[in-house]
Design a protein that fits this description.
It is built from 9 helices and 13 strands. The strands form 3 sheets. It has a 7-stranded mixed β-sheet with strand order 2-3-4-7-11-12-13, with helices on both faces. Strands 1, 8, 9 and 10 form a 4-stranded antiparallel β-sheet that branches. The chain has a two-stranded antiparallel ribbon with strand order 5-6. By secondary structure, it is of the alpha+beta class. Belongs to the DNA/RNA non-specific endonuclease family.
């Protein structure tokens, strides 16, 4: 089954979408992405994506941060949570900044944050998966007694049964249960590794990608802990538009299982790197959810962070600059 949402675009956006159509949509389905096809696609993405996705986090993220306070778990430690540009607005009929009478029986949905032993995620009940997962990598956290063979993928019972994925959804689908926060990033305790096997931390991923190019990116992320004081990794799905023969742009993606778990068209990974001198480096990657030639250098997948911000509806740079004035963004071709 596929889900599609037609969209009208402005004249200024149409050129971006045309570049995307001639770039990402040239993927040799169902074959493997070649270096040439990837270069064309990445060039299109760098022009700037125009689709904004994601649920409103703003005020809700700050509420969860205050609520976590000094509590254990990553939420109390991370310097930056990705949020959307606009905060939750005040509702009419109540005091300034409050929801008043309209919220008497609760709001039907706000940002769903989960703070685990090893990561924080924002959950999207529509897709049955995470909007983003944020984790901190340090050398000592990559070592320990965490045993992957003792872990099992399991439902996240903190998510309502209407809105969560099950193992049955993946059975026979042809997709891997691809980790967003990788299990190998959290060997420091069995509980931390177990937490990475919640299906809320998983997305349907093409096996060839999961086991090769994406795995290489995860290994590279871990290797950076040898050079940087702190490595923060934010990973999530993308659902990118394509312009079809009728000239209209659509977001189309497959869904699997009886719970209609959304299959992303692409994945992003943003690395926030803290050097010992206080400098911050930012490296942002996008890979298509398709077979990718694993011999392609990872630097070919680098994209400007604003491309991911536009496509996901999230913001990274303003939050980082609010805490650190020294930011170096690494993209393909940077030195």
């Amino acid at each position: 089954m596929a889900v599609s949402r037609p969209g009208r675009v402005s004249k200024g956006q149409r050129k971006d979408l045309e570049d995307i159509r001639t770039g990402w949509s040239k993927a040799p389905a169902p074959g493997t992405w070649t270096a040439l096809a990837l270069l064309e696609a990445m060039r299109a993405l760098r022009v700037g994506l125009t689709l904004a996705l994601g649920a409103g986090l703003g005020a809700a993220a700050e509420h969860w941060r205050r609520q976590a306070g000094g509590a254990p778990g990553l939420l109390g430690r991370v310097p930056v949570l990705p949020v959307v540009a606009a905060d939750l607005p005040a509702l009419p009929g109540g005091p300034a900044g409050g929801t008043g009478e309209l919220a008497k029986y609760g709001l039907p949905g706000v940002a769903q944050l989960r703070s685990r032993e090893s990561y924080v995620l924002s959950y999207d009940p529509r897709t049955r998966g995470a909007l983003w997962v944020l984790e901190q990598l340090r050398p000592e956290r990559l070592r320990g007694d965490g045993d992957r063979s003792a872990c099992d993928f399991r439902e996240d019972d903190s998510v309502h049964a209407y809105h969560r994925a099950t193992n049955a959804d993946y059975r026979g689908s042809g997709f891997d249960r691809g980790h967003l926060a990788a299990a190998a990033n959290h060997r420091w305790s069995q509980r931390a590794m177990n937490d990475t096997f919640y299906l809320s931390n998983v997305a349907p991923q093409v096996p060839h990608l999961n086991q090769n190019a994406w795995n290489n990116l995860e290994k590279y992320s871990r290797s950076l802990t040898r050079s940087y004081q702190n490595v923060y990794v934010c990973t999530g799905p993308l659902f990118l538009p394509r312009t079809e023969a009728d000239g209209k742009s659509y977001v189309k993606y497959q869904v699997i299982g009886k719970n209609h778990v959304a299959v992303p068209t692409h994945f992003f990974k943003v690395l926030i790197l803290e050097a010992t001198g206080g400098q911050i480096e930012l490296r942002s990657y996008v890979m298509p959810n398709a077979p990718v030639d694993e011999t392609i250098p990872l630097e070919r997948f680098l994209v400007p962070i604003e491309s991911i911000e536009r496509a996901s509806g999230l913001l990274f740079v303003p939050n980082i600059l609010a805490r650190a004035g020294n930011l170096k963004a690494i993209t393909a071709g940077s030195k």
